[in-house]
Amino acid sequence: RLRNLRSDGLPIHLKRGYPDRMLYRTTMALTIGGTIYCLVALYIASQPKNQK
């Protein structure tokens, strides 16, 4: 159990290898994608509608 506490330069959220890397990358992709989606939605919502 103490072997994971050694100082190898890895952040604690990436200590368990491949599964942690995939979870981290998926979380970051969803966060960045969600941010871009929200910014696009705000831009579209801020445009005035054409009254015909």
TrEMBL record:
Transmembrane segments: 22-45
Localization in the cell: Mitochondrion inner membrane
Origin superkingdom: Eukaryota
GO biological process: mitochondrial electron transport, cytochrome c to oxygen; mitochondrial respirasome assembly; regulation of oxidative phosphorylation
Entries under InterPro entries matching the protein: Cyt_c_oxidase_su7a_sf, Cytc_oxidase_su7a_met
Primary location recorded for the protein, binned into one broad class: mitochondrion
Assigned protein family: Belongs to the cytochrome c oxidase VIIa family.
Protein's name according to its UniProt entry: Cytochrome c oxidase subunit 7A2 like
Organism lineage: Eukaryota, Metazoa, Chordata, Craniata, Vertebrata
